Amino acid sequence: MAIRGAGFKRKSKAASAIPTCSMADIAFLLLIFFMASTTFRAEQVRQIAWPTAEATQKIDEKRKNVLHVWVEQDGGIWINDQRLPTEQVSTVVAPLYVETERRLVVAIRGDQEVPYRIMDSLQKELQEAGAVRVTFATRLEKRRTREER
């Protein structure tokens, strides 16, 4: 008759669990790395001659709900740093308008020398896209009071 185990004992057993004591440290270090190495591209500013206005009003909307549409003097329309023909403006704006649950504000930043026909066709495209909150960005002209004159 054979004796089971014959007096030999295993000194160590294979661990059945994955050690998780340093998982939080690793996750925190990865988070810091990605926060430090990520860069956000800023919107490219176009060189335009701003139209003047006697009064303006600040837009009270979150930055993510404001879409800047740049219109250059030659009639070029830029949305999200991409030049678009006028006919494609509604195809770009309509999904953005739905995505923001109809909170999107379109800020038209047009050169003061842009022909009216281009601005009119842009407005018609925005109407076709369903955008009803449209503003015109201007440079505020300081009013003179009668006392200064």
List the helices and strands and how they pair.
Blueprint: H1 23-37, E1 52-53, E2 66-71, E3 77-79, E4 82-84, H2 89-99, E5 105-110, H3 116-129, E6 134-136, E7 139-140
Parallel strand pairs: 1-7, 2-5, 5-6
Antiparallel strand pairs: 2-3, 3-4
Helix pairs in contact: 2-3
Structure notes:
This protein is of the alpha/beta class. It has a domain at 52-140: Nucleotidyltransferase, domain 5, CATH 3.30.420. Helix content is 27%, strand content 17%. It has helices spanning 23-37, 89-99, 116-129; strands at 52-53, 66-71, 77-79, 82-84, 105-110, 134-136, 139-140. The strands form two sheets. A five-stranded mixed beta sheet has the order 4-3-2-5-6, with no helix packed on it. A two-stranded parallel sheet has the order 1-7. A hairpin with a 2-residue loop joins strand 3 and strand 4. The radius of gyration is 30 Å and the shape is elongated.
